[in-house]
Structure formats: structure tokens, C-alpha cells
Amino acid sequence: MAADRTVNVQFPAGTTGTSIRDAVAGRDAVSYRVGAEAGQTMRVALSASNPATYFNIYAPGNGPGDEAMVIGEFTDPLNTWSGALPVSGEYTVVVFQYRAAARRGESSDFTLDISVTGETGDVIQSDFADGLAGGPDFYQVNVAGGGSLNLRASSSAGAAVVTRLTNGQNLRNLGCRMAEGLRWCRVATLADPGIEGWAAGDYLIEGSGGATVGQSSENGSERVQFAPGSTGSELTAALAPGESRRYLVGASADQFLYVRVAPQGQPISYQIFNPDGSFLLDQISSDKEYRGQLWQSGDHVIEVINRTDANLTYYLIIGVE
């Protein structure tokens, strides 16, 4: 049985290519997905410890079982190809062993060099399945584990972070482009005025026009309820290293919010999001309390984060007046 893998290739920030070291054994194959736009030039070169190792390149929308755009066995020189790309989208480079070597269960260590050069035009050309210029009207942030997603000033992993988007937050789709081997989407938060920037497309799914923020209380966040007649609450919880917990606090514009995090041990971090997913308070240390006036009505999210290497118990004190 083949144990095929798929890898999304990302170039280091500010670069146009990368060198990948990997291995295949028997009938295994590895598919490397690389985003690029029509008119750009892709170069692929493979060097392997087993001479029966080759690559095929498939155009967007195709893969193993379809007709290959490039067959490494027939390139000159062998397993080296460079050419202009006809379509915008995600290309697939598949590395595998020839049949006889695969049947014998041989293995191969290899280095795969992939680069995409050439500027992208102001207008997207030959867009595959309308995947960049089109798409849904709204996206939703979809990060495994419920983390946040960086919204950057430009389509690069090295660009400045404009803000952090919460998991489940809905965004307006302003169009996507390919850069550094990935699909980047220009989006805007749904607040008025919204915050615009670029987010990695791998963490976006189709969304809606609703101002959803974070995980709902049914999906892991804890809704904070004040006792009748009171304006605050005190909670206690524990976090393992690297864990975080979110609390939903309903409040109205012009009210004042007070937050204090008191760990039993070294300081931890916390941050506060507005109902539209924008930052009310960027991540700070628990050494500092927060008190400020709110400008939005709805569920505010307080996220407590343990970035230490120890299990910590903490108290969370919240007040709304």
C-alpha cells in the first residue's frame, strides 16, 4: 500500500524559492503544492540517491492519474525543468520512484529545488476556475486549535502584522494573489471602518457577512455570567504550557471593562478582542491590569495564554460598569 503525502510549499519570506529535503520508499509518493500565476517562470530540479526517482508536474486542477504537464524522466537535462506558466493557481510537483524500484521496496533520499520568479501583473491572467479573482464574498478564519491568524500589510510572511484575526471571524474578500508559493487573500474586517490586509489563504474558508468572533461558547469558550445585582466576577482555572482559554463577556458601548489576570507563579499573557474581532487590547503581560471604555456592543473575548514552560493556575477578575 502506498503512503502518499501532500505538502504545501512555502518559500521563506522575501524569497522566490526553496530547497526541500525528503525521502520516498516503495510505492510512496509526495505531492508538493506550489501557488503561482500565469506568466511567471517555475523551475524544478530533483537530485536523488536512487536514480529511479523522478518528478511529474501537474497544472492546477490536475494530479496523479491525469495528464502531466511535465514528466521529469523526459526533460533535458533529466529531472530539471524551467518554463513559463500558462495558468494561475496551485501546481503540483509529485516525486516518486519508477515501478521496478517501487516493487522492490527501495528507498530514495532526495533534494527538490523549486522556484517561481517573475513579477505578477496588476490584473490576474488565466485564473484557474476563477480561484483568485473570484471566490466567495466573505471568508471565515479557520485555524486548527482555535488560534489567531496574522493579518499582514502585504502578501508576505515577513510583512508587518496589522492585527490578529480570531478563529471563526468573518471577513470581506477583496481578492487573492499568489506569493511565496502560497495563496494570499486581501481581506477586510466587517467593522465600519474595517481593517484591511493580507491573510494566508490556507487558513480561510467560505464565511458570511455576520460579525462572528472567536469560538462560540458551545465550542470551547466560557461565557462569563455575573451574579444578580453584581457588576463583576472572579474565576479560577489552570493552563498547561502553550494552552489558552477564551472567555465571552457581553457588554455595551460606552460601558467600562476591567480585567485582571493573577497567576500563581510567573506572569502569563492575555488579550482582548472587540465583538467584530479587532483588538481592544493587544497581547500584554498579566503584570498589567486593563481598564477602558468600550466602543462596541456585543460579546467581547478575553483570551488568557500560558507561554511559559510550566503548568499555571490563575485567577481572572472581570468587571463591567
Summarize the structure.
The protein is mainly β. It is 2% helix and 50% strand.
Structural write-up:
Helix content is 2%, strand content 50%. Residues 211-219 have low confidence and may be disordered. It has 1 helix and 25 strands. It has one helix at residues 99-103; strands at residues 5-8, 17-25, 29-36, 41-48, 53-58, 70-71, 80-84, 89-97, 107-117, 138-141, 149-152, 161-165, 170-179, 182-189, 196-200, 204-206, 222-223, 232-239, 244-251, 256-263, 269-273, 279-285, 290-293, 298-305, 312-320. It is elongated, with a radius of gyration of 24 Å. It is mostly beta strands and 321 residues long.
Task: Spell out the key features of this protein.
mainly beta, 5-stranded antiparallel β-sheet, elongated
What is the share of helical residues? Answer: under 10%
Q: Please list the strands of the largest sheet in the order they lie side by side.
A: 1-3-8-5-6
| Cα shape | elongated
Strand content: over 45%
Poorly predicted ranges: 211-219
Q: Count of helices? A: 1
The chain-level structural class is mainly beta
- In whole angstroms, how far apart are the ends? 63 Å
Mean pLDDT score: 87
Q: Would you list the SSEs in sequence order as H and E? A: EEEEEEEEHEEEEEEEEEEEEEEEEE
Radius of gyration: 24 Å
Let me know the largest β-sheet: 5 strands, mixed
According to DSSP, the number of beta strands is 25
